[in-house]
Design goal:
Elements (H helix, E strand, L loop, with lengths): L14 H6 L6 H19 L6 H26 L6 H10 L3 H12 L8 H9 L3 H16 L4 H11 L8
Helix pairs in contact: 2-3, 3-4, 3-7, 4-5, 5-7
Length: 167
């Protein structure tokens, strides 16, 4: 069996063209190209130019990147905090119920009555051993989950490809 190649970057392909690369390139690299394309689109045309489906991809990719690199704490500290309000619904929309429950538990660990980026950043700036223990447990659950987030996100893109306008 030949190992799939890594797609280095987004180069102006349409959603359909990126999807067609799945037989040759790693799915995670194709998802990264989608993310790069959507970030360019948002930068060029504004966040409001993104479809709901495009927002789902950005939220899920932010969660994957941050939690895999530093846990839920990193997701809440970095710029990915902007996706907290939509991440649970996004995970459910792509069929990742187990990960949505873990993420909901991590968000609840913040103990905030109002969920916005500033409130989250302020909470994360305060030392709280109980919160960090709970987030650590959520990290472990996330890492040990057998849910195929990438595969489900890619299947979601395939099923909704018309909602992805990249170039």
């Amino acid at each position: 069996m030949t190992e799939s190649k890594w797609l280095d970057q987004y180069s102006g392909e349409s959603a359909e063209q990126l999807i067609a690369l799945a037989d040759e390139y790693r799915i995670d690299s194709i998802l990264a190209a989608f993310e790069q394309a959507l970030q360019q689109k948002a930068s060029r045309d504004g966040e409001k130019s993104l479809s709901a489906e495009e927002g789902i991809l950005l939220a899920v990719e932010a969660l994957e990147r941050e939690v895999n690199n530093g846990g839920y704490s990193q997701f809440f500290i970095n710029s990915s905090v902007e996706y907290v309000s939509q991440i649970v619904a996004s995970l459910r929309r792509i069929g990742c119920s187990k990960t949505s429950e873990i993420t909901e538990r991590a968000i609840a660990a913040l103990g905030l009555p109002v969920m916005n980026a500033l409130a989250i950043q302020n909470a994360m700036a305060d030392d709280n051993d109980e919160r960090e223990d709970e987030l650590g447990q959520c990290d472990d659950l996330y890492y040990n989950s057998d849910e195929d987030i990438e595969g489900r996100l890619f299947a979601f893109i395939r099923a909704n490809h018309a909602a992805f306008e990249l170039s």
